[in-house]
Design a protein that fits this description.
Layout lengths: L1 H11 L13 E5 L8 E7 L2 E6 L6 E5 L5 E7 L8 E4 L4 E6 L10 E7 L5 E3 L2 E6 L7 E6 L6 E5 L5 E5 L10 E2 L1 E6 L5 E4 L5 E5 L3 E6 L5 E6 L6 E6 L4 E6 L5 E6 L2 H7 L20 H4 L13 H31 L1
Parallel strand pairs: 5-9, 10-14
Antiparallel strand pairs: 1-22, 2-3, 3-4, 4-5, 6-7, 7-8, 8-10, 11-12, 12-13, 13-15, 16-17, 17-18, 18-19, 20-21, 21-22
Helix pairs in contact: 1-4
């Protein structure tokens, strides 16, 4: 089934700019902890790599050093339903995303703000419930805009995922309604913003797509190195990608960006008048310079813009459906 999904994902990405990698991946580290068996989320911070196991584990986040050794574990009493991702939440904290829903039955999903670092700790983290505006969805990707701290969820769907934005101010006492932003890569297993706040990346099992933000225009498609079940991605300060996969003793790979993609996402000090912090300002891509979205509050794309950008995905969807039907008929004949 994964092979079929990847064929569909490739067709659905039709119309985007394809970019071949010009650098080979390297092994960043190998997880030494036998308790890390299904690395599904990844955050690089303060010289540590943070990860979390997929569904079925207790509530805990692992802090791993450069040698792959676990140097800290944060635990909480609340039993998660299906943890799938991590995202930065500021100094010494991460967002834990309990957002998996393979059967699309959950009334709400949940994110937790969890302290992390060296040393073991038991905590009672702040939690927030999120609801979709159009029914339950499965998701494995949580992203946080580094310039606004706003939280985003990317769904995992065969015919194209959707990026949703959480409210700017999260309410811990009531469900927080997600707002649809636009289409993203199908079969999305993780995502992360670049430091400029104007670009983010979403990965699948074999490919990743770099998007402009808030335009959601595809800037590049990256072929990822083979992994047994790649479900984690993080962006380093050097603008490399870190890639994790499920499995005990799994390797985390470092993938440098192609130079043309690096030039797109690299922060620039040439825009001192920008409303974002100096370290996060960028030289925008042409499509972004034409955008009327405000940097203060990050206005989401207009509906007409989202529909225009989504057209290649819809066309790809019809092609993918044809491929799926053909495969099913072929199997039936056998």
């Amino acid at each position: 089934m994964r092979a079929i999904s990847e064929v569909l994902a490739a067709l659905l990405a039709w119309g985007s700019l394809a970019v071949g990698a010009d650098a080979q991946p390297e092994v960043e580290l190998t997880f030494q902890d036998p308790e890390i068996v299904e690395s599904s989320g990844l955050v690089a911070t303060a010289g540590l790599l943070l990860t979390v196991n997929d569904s079925g584990d207790t509530g805990r986040v692992f802090a791993v050093d450069a040698g792959g050794r676990t140097v800290g574990v944060t635990r909480w009493a609340e039993e998660p339903e299906d943890v799938e991702a991590l995202a930065p939440a500021g100094d010494g904290e991460v967002w834990v995303a309990d957002i998996g829903d393979n059967r699309a039955r959950r009334d709400s999903i949940r994110i937790l703000k969890v302290p992390v670092g060296r040393g073991d700790r038991d905590v009672e983290p702040a939690g927030f419930d999120l609801t979709y505006p159009d029914g339950a969805r499965d998701a494995e990707s949580l992203l946080v805009d580094p310039t606004t701290a706003r939280v985003y969820v990317a769904t995992k769907e065969v015919f194209g995922g959707t990026l949703y934005a959480a409210p700017e101010d999260l309410d811990p006492a009531a469900p927080n309604l997600l707002e649809e932003v636009g289409p993203v890569l199908p079969i999305a297993t993780d995502g992360a913003f670049f430091p400029d706040g104007r670009h983010f990346v979403v990965r699948g099992y074999q490919r990743a797509v770099v998007y402009g933000f808030p335009s959601l225009e595809s800037e590049a498609i990256l072929d990822l190195p083979p992994q047994p079940q790649g479900e984690g991605i993080a962006v380093t300060p050097e603008l490399d990608l870190l890639l994790s996969t499920e499995g005990q003793g799994a390797e985390v790979l470092r993938l440098p960006l192609p130079e043309d993609v690096r030039a797109i996402v690299a922060p620039s000090l040439a825009s001192p008048s920008s409303a974002v912090p100096p370290q996060a300002s960028t030289t925008a891509a042409p499509s972004q310079r034409a955008s009327t979205a405000s940097r203060e509050g990050k206005e989401l794309p207009e509906t007409t813009e989202v529909q225009r950008d989504a057209m290649p995905w819809f066309l790809g969807g019809f092609l993918a459906l044809g491929v799926l039907i053909a495969l099913m008929l072929s199997l039936r004949r056998r």
